Amino acid sequence: xxxxxxxxxxxxxxxxxxxxxxxxxxxxxxxxxxxxxxxxxxxxxxxxxxxxxxxxxxxxxxxxxxxxxxxxxxxxxxxxxxxxxxxxxxxxxxxxxxxxxxxxxxxxxxxxxxxxxxxxxxxxxxxxxxxxxxxxxxxxxxxxxxxxxxxxxxxxxxxxxxxxxxxxxxxxxxxxxxxxxxxxxxxxxxxxxxxxxxxxxxxxxxxxxxxxxxxxxxxxxxxxxxxxxxxxxxxxxxxxxxxxxxxxxxxxxxxxxxxxxxxxxxxxxxxxxxxxxxxxxxxxxxxxxxxxxxxxxxxxxxxxxxxxxxxxxxxxxxxxxxxxxxxxxxxxxxxxxxxxxxxxxxxxxxxxxxxxxxxxxxxxxxxxxxxxxxxxxxxxxxxxxxxxxxxxxxxxxxxxxxxxxxxxxxxxxxxxxxxxxxxxxxxxxxxxxxxxxxxxxxxxxxxxxxxxxxxxxxxxxxxxxxxxxxxxxxxxxxxxxxxxxxxxxxxxxxxxxxxxxxxxxxxxxxxxxxxxxxxxxxxxxxxxxxxxxxxxxxxxxxxxxxxxxxxxxxxxxxxxxxxxxxxxxxxxxxxxxxxxxxxxxxxxxxxxxxxxxxxxxxxxxxxxxxxxxxxxxxxxxxxxxxxxxxxxxxxxxxxxxxxxxxxxxxxxxxxxxxxxxxxxx
Length: 665
Hints:
Domain Non-reducing end beta-L-arabinofuranosidase-like GH127 middle: 455-547
Domain Non-reducing end beta-L-arabinofuranosidase-like GH127 C-terminal: 549-662
CATH topology of the largest domain: Glycosyltransferase
Number of helices: 17
Domain Non-reducing end beta-L-arabinofuranosidase-like GH127 catalytic: 17-443
Helix content: 25-40%
Largest sheet: 6 strands, mixed
Pfam families: Beta-AFase-like_GH127_cat, Glyco_hydro127C, Glyco_hydro127M
Strand content: 15-25%
Protein name: Glycoside hydrolase family 127 protein
Strand order of the largest sheet: 1-6-7-11-14-13
Distance between the termini: 49 Å
Shape: globular
């Protein structure tokens, strides 16, 4: 199966242009252009007067400044100084550049492009003659290049540039941006691989795999695809690889303090990927690896790699994912733990992990058109990704909790990583630019094309106007996610024969209506999609989805959510917060047969749908009362609960927040 989302092909179907008209996502894309990009550039140039947060109150985290751009200036010889920040600090700049590339596509800006072009020039000046570019090692430890891959993030860092360089080249035509990427890949290819004399290993943080796959598609240079596949297949084959490197480099010469305490499973390196049954270790590492695997599986038709992707996907979404789409249930290593371990007030759910799950879902859709992949993509887009940025675009979450108490965050060391307000920036600032590049590229996540079956899959309800080859155009209109009426207008002047597939989301699978022109056509349903056989000059489809409020129950093996429900309407997961409901929020419960009232409020939180319900609340025990006593039945009193979308919480005032709410049995 040859599927693509946004690649022009010499043969088969291709998407030529797409304009996002969706009001919900236009606001976020404007936020990226007008707030996030200039703000982040200011921070990375050390021009912003802000406080940088140390995650988990870890004093080892460098948080005096970003210095990310200055590191390039120093490495290029343009100014004096030392490297500052993490060894992977370069990637903040690269992800910012990638966000700029996508932004220039939908919002051309000569001044912004000039800034980005100058950054490309600086990166080119910094790059060494053999293609190597990681500023930490160039400035501080040139003799240690590729010598401690378990910690060095070298291939991870260069992979992020390769992604950015490809994106910038494809949008602007800047050949220097692509040349830098190719030289990096050539450097890696020169040093890594199965041949004698090369390093038979891989980076401790997967990323290069997905980057090389993108570079292959941009250049058609098969060496890059072969190298991506090598890194995937080699991973975990030699469990002693990292140890031998550390022994040779010096055991007491850590690059990132504390990293040696983690087992090989943390790096997905304890066994080959084909033998890994569950998602283990650092959540972002796992899903970046899976994204690269899924992309390579499609390009190489490697069924064994795809089977490994399916196995890890199933483990994550069926046993290790939060209802918001967040992953990573412990702050210790930002990692997965074990099946059904999903605590709400100590979890991690890093923004980058949710962004990575969106990447993974997209690549799985390219391999096989299953609605479940698009369902998870939708869950990520509307919940646990955008919860990572404030509505002003200048404050961010690294951790995305499902339950928050200000006192617990302030006074419990085990919950100090859980912030009750979004922060200006982080010492480890991977999340803000990662989120910016996802939002800016949202147009790439709406349709998937199948060249062989001549099928266009519409799997995300994001209003747009899209132009395909053969003069086929599709206009999707809606007020989603607040309303469930979706209309597709297909123009097909050449009367080309093709299939058009529309996803029916899991939350509406049993209640929806579908109307279309040409009554003689009988739609086919398969794997969460409704298929239409298109050959008419014009064809219209109207889909009405179930927008009732749903009470969602967790698997009863998730002990943290027993006798509780989460509130969801459409794709949006809702929460209570103290701004609307007097604390403590733990004292509320929803009645056995609730009557929910939904209201769209255009003036609240940039326009959101709210949900209200008459409920019950316990009277809080007096502060000077006994800590323990003989059991007695509590008296529940009438109360009112007001819910807002989870992604919009803590944009008004600090306070408690809670997703899962008690339910009367």
